[in-house]
Amino acid sequence: MQKFNTLKSIPAYLPIVNIDTDMIIPKQFLKTIKRTGLGKNLFFEMRYDDNGKEINDFVLNQEPFNSSKILIAGNNFGCGSSREHAPWALLDFGITCVISSSYADIFYSNCFKNGILPIILEEEKIKELSEYANRKEEISVDLNDQKIIYGNNEIKFEIDPFKKKCLLEGLDDIALSLKKSDKIQYFENQLKNKRPWIFND
Amino acid sequence: MSTTLYDKIWNDHLVDQQEDGTALLFVDRHLIHEVTSPQAFEGLRNSNRKVRHPNLTLAVADHNVPTTDRTKGISDEESKIQVDTLESNCKEFGVQLFGMDDKRQGIVHIIGPEQGFTQPGTVIVCGDSHTATHGAFGSLAFGIGTSEVEHVLATQTLVQKKAKNFRINVNGTLPLGVTSKDVILQIIGKIGTAGGTGCVVEYAGDLIRSLSVEQRMTICNMTIEGGARAGLIAPDEKIFEYLKGKPMSPKGENWEKALEYWKSLKTDADASFDKEINLNANEILPMITWGTSPQDVITIDGKVPNPQNEKDDDKKNSIERALKYMGLTPDMAATDIKIDKVFIGSCTNGRIEDLREAAKILKDKKISSHVDAIVVPGSGLVKEQAEQEGLDKIFVNSGFEWREPGCSMCLAMNADKLKPEERCASTSNRNFEGRQGRGGRTHLVSPGMAAAAAISGNLDDVRKYQN
Fold first, then answer.
1. What percent of chain B has pLDDT over 90?
2. What count of other Cβ atoms lies within 10 Å of the Cβ of residue B176?
3. What pLDDT, on the 0 to 100 scale, is given for residue A172?
């Protein structure tokens, strides 16, 4: 997994609430057996017209937002299905940081497995940051110090320490859990006695 | 200390409490399907890892499969690759698969209970958000992403943070024609699509206890639409009776041991909840969704909202956007909404009781001439049972098409989809923009309401057709 440390970009602002995973990546693109290549279809329905032409009004079709690495969006971002194709599509497009006032649980946790930092801020701070998108000015994100730097201002954000560590170091969850094989084995042995029907033995 | 049902299941699956507040949780049952698993198996292969417990894993292809004649296989090349990939992955890693020609094939959340793979007190995961369905059995069941699917395959555990306890009590009795689908739509309307975020919901109250096992599944299924990852109901005699003798249920001495454990699975009387709400079942009416979020609900005798009545700008914009997408005018009556299609099926409402409920309304009636309607049974076994009861004939005689099992038009990954601006009364779970096809307009309803809409040609009150 790609490490996340600091990031500087003009943010793109999508002022829509409840952006669901069907909007982020519609189902016709879930038929892939790979993790990559989804970026061109990110926000497909909003981004292209019926003839497959880019819709100029849509923010990610406009310069400089078509190369934004930071997306600012309305609350409850990523609601709906568990499809990890949603963070894969964001990542493939080049977005590695999302800023919203809230996220759906599964999407939130999927971001961290893919090197994407989802930041939670209060609505009013989001409005403030969105001004930088409107003015096409860069903002910076510093994960280690847990802060966003914009103009002469800073906002601190909260993040779970373990999730932070994994992002900073690009750690693979599975390798970490496999280090606990002894504990898993011990649990399974106990389980075979306590609830033998679980293993169908 | 007094604990909730969720606390008890959590505690019984704790492999390791980690310093950062997360926990390593043992997973008893892992369901997989073709859409969210290929990248997980690829990950295993790339790092030379095995599936730790193939016998705790069950696979089925459901999202991509055609619901029409299957003898010629899948014509869509990409869908075929995904289904074939699932098959070869299952063979390589030794996982049991219900293939497309197996009569046990069906929607992953329907086959789990049907086979007795789903059991009380277990932790069940699947790369699909509607995994919450299995909570009806008193299990902790939730959807996970593909990286987590890989994690479970490799370790049979999952890294989780404990959620909050949220209890929703529903007491009273439901009026005639009102179903568990209306109950859950009412709940989502009340709490909103983010109302349950960070929580596990326990459904309780005498109405919930009075529901059949399948009706409970409909409620737990849509828990995710209220933002909570899991919803559960304490198991009781109805659950034990349902599971007895199922192919994968515990047998003999194990059945007795399991039963003893299952009976202990309930929230202590004085356990406390972080959040709690109460609903009166007597006041619930048949519901429809008018907009593009499952929280956009009104009763069938209600009116579409008017954005002018909304003071909050964000909410006003969101209503305007939804009305525009749905092609509706403010203040129009729900029963004036004319429909083009009807879809009965999905993991929400594709079980035998759902089909019976719709068939009861359709018996000896014809659907409206401008309506195209399909029934997609949730599994091969549901289909077989329905055919034994003659339900297929009722559907076909009324003008419905009778299809092969799968997810079908719930998410329109196969050939079953809406055309732009087509309007559908659907028993599925999501009315998002484009969910049932680009530009398609979805109204979520119960199976009886879907049948009523098919007959009338517009959204209509199922109580009109009750005998």
1. 95
2. 8
3. 82
Distance CA B430, CA B410 (A): 8
In one-letter notation, the amino acid at residue B49 is R
Tokens of B95: 């996982």
Give me the mean pLDDT over the B160-189 stretch. Answer: 97
Instruction: Please state the rounded mean pLDDT for residues B149-154.
Output: 98
Mean pLDDT of the residues in chain B: 96
| CA B429 – CA B408 distance, rounded (Å) | 13
Q: Residue B313 has what pLDDT?
A: 87
How far does the CA of residue A7 sit from the closest CA of chain B (Å)? 24
A113 touching B (Cβ < 8 Å) = yes
As a whole number of angstroms, the distance between CA B185 and CA B142 comes to 19
Chain B nearest CA to A102, separation (Å):
9
Q: What is the ipTM of this complex?
A: 0.94
Give me the amino acid identity at A42.
L
Does the beta-carbon distance from B197 to A161 stay under 8 Å? no
B162: amino acid identity, one letter = K
* SS3 labels along chain B: CCCCHHHHHHHCCEEEECCCCEEEEECCEEEECCCCCHHHHHHHHHCCCCCCCHHHEEEECCCCCCCCCCCCCCCCHHHHHHHHHHHHHHHHHCCEEECCCCCCCECHHHHHHHHCCCCCCCEEEECCHHHHHHHHHCCEEEECCHHHHHHHHHHCEEEEECCEEEEEEEECCCCCCCCHHHHHHHHHHHHCCCCCCCEEEEEECHHHHHCCHHHHHHHHHHHHHHCCCEEECCCCHHHHHHHCCCCCCCCHHHHHHHHHHHHCCCCCCCCCCCEEEEEEHHHCCCEEECCCCCCCEEECCCECCCHHHCCCHHHHHHHHHHHHHHCCCCCCEHHHCECCEEEECHHHHCCHHHHHHHHHHHCCCCCCCCCEEEECCCEHHHHHHHHHCCHHHHHHHHCEEECCCCCHHHCCCCCCCCCCCCEEEECCCCCCCCCCCCCCEEEECCHHHHHHHHHHCECCCHHHHCC
pLDDT digits (tens, 9 = 90+) for B6-64: 999 999 999 999 887 899 999 999 999 999 999 999 999 999 999 999 999 999 999 99
Instruction: Return the closest-CA partner of residue A176 out of A112, A123, A125.
Output: A112
Please indicate if any CB of chain A lies within 8 Å of the CB of B47: yes
Q: Is A104 helix (H, G, I), strand (E, B) or coil?
A: coil
List A residues 117-156 in contact with B (Cβ-Cβ < 8 A).
none
Contacts of A30 in chain B (CB under 8 A): 35, 63, 413
Instruction: Report the residue of chain B nearest A179, measured CA to CA.
Output: B155
pLDDT at A201 over 80: no
